[in-house]
Amino acid sequence: MRKGLAALFVAFAMLVSPAMAAAGKAAPAGSIHFDVHYGAQGFKIGEARHDWRLAGNKYEMSLNLEAKGLAGLFGLQYEQRSVGTVDAKGMRPERFSVDQRGRKLESAEFDWQAGRVSIRRDGNERRSGSIQPGDQDLLSLWHQARRVADTGKAVKLTVVTNKSVKQATLEPSGTETLKLPFGQVDTLRVRAWAEEGELDIEIWLSQQHGLLPVRIRIEDEKGGVLDQRASRIELGAPAAAAKQESRQN
Q1: When comparing pLDDT for 147 and 186, which is higher?
Q2: What Cα–Cα distance (Å) separates residue 75 from each residue in 34, 106, 157?
Q3: From CA 57, how far away is CA 91, in angstroms rounded?
Q4: pLDDT at position 13, please?
Q5: Longest dimension (CA), the chain
Q6: I need a surface site. Which of 42, 50, 51, 240 has the fewest CB within 10 A?
Q7: Which residue has the higher pLDDT, 75 or 103?
Q8: Which residue has the higher pLDDT, 84 or 11?
Q9: Angle at 171 between CA 34 and CA 210, to 5 degrees
Q10: Closest residue by Cα to residue 70 from 49, 44, 43, 45
């Protein structure tokens, strides 16, 4: 169970987006809170919070995951961060990092001029890979998902995690109305899957919230299911400022 839960929580990081806005425009800052459920019965095992801030052509974002009960005993509490710039291709990551309790810091350093990404643990390179414009890390990926929903066309790109460089396909998969704690929302669905067959993910993007991700369902190759449903959305600088203050205390 530990290995399966850990893999699903890492995959959940792929399911958040800086495309945060009402009326289809990017909000400069904000937060999304998720209830996290596991298994066919949908037992709630924890919560997650995504924070982002856009300033000019710069962005920074984070995803904090905290499991409760037995899942919490497995050490499934960590923060993932992505920083970079925004250009015509969307998010252009410069550094992606994972800080998990009890483990050494893992990161991916992007060198766009050289077309190379270096994946490191505690500062030491473990592996590397090639990148080109449009490729993403786990947290910046879902800006591209928003583009897929907008255009209705599938895309292929490289996704960089804290452990690997993977080829992935993003494709639209219809519409659906969801009932969430904060109300009913009309959504566009996007499916994401790794070509190696490791993940099968669906994300529901709210049309009332500028295509924010409001539900994410991940199924791994063993049939394990992780289902995240948004419980609250906070747009604007106060939400991000409160998060920053919390990190400093």
Answers
A1: 186
A2: 19, 16, 31
A3: 9
A4: 47
A5: 48
A6: 42
A7: 103
A8: 84
A9: 45
A10: 45
